[in-house]
Amino acid sequence: MLFFVDTANLDHIKEASELGILDGVTTNPSLMAKEGISGDNAVLQHYQKICEIVGPGHDVSAEVISTDYAGMVKEGKKLAELHENIVVKVPMTVDGVKAISHFSEIGIRTNCTLVFSAGQAILAAKAGATYLSPFIGRIDDMSWEGIDLIKEIVEVYTTQGYETAILAASIRSPLHIVQCAKAGADVVTCPLSAIKGLFYHPLTDIGLEKFLADHKKSQLS
Ligand code: E4P
Asked: Residues 184, 190, 191, CA angle at the centre, nearest 5°?
């Protein structure tokens, strides 16, 4: 399972990259706004910076703002030209699916976002999306089991042999990451805090403290 970090914060991206386990980055308009990035040029420059931090071979999802087919195609082409790492993120709408299909025909990679059902996942795969982003945290927020959606899509994609990668999004915790790995997600995109949460176990800390204390004692005797 690939690890993407879900943020537009350059410090978080650098920190995740330095961990040595980062495969890519996802952003969305809310995450860009949170970093105070506004205006077309500033947004493009920010994507460029993200691509430079993560380096070659690390996909960076950049989302279109247009909601109509023509606008999505124009915007997506501009984003794709920016850097070879860019994957154009397109919402799951009728125009979005049409745009994904077009991008697929002309070799532009896509991430179909705002997916909340297996039916939507089928449409995105048929259109040739590179990645599919089901939002599991937002389903949990409505008191349903978000992870069940990942399990269902994994079953459908495996049965049908669809090649679109399942990129589990809207991750809120280390538990979500483990659940996604068990369910067979291809990628998980998470806030840095959720990735860092995977490191910690009190028995690791206690065990290390004891090893170091025993080593110190043995050096004194
Ligand atoms: C990523 O591609 C999504 O935009 C993101 O994971 C949404 O997360 P949220 O539900 O925490 O906003």
From this structure: 165
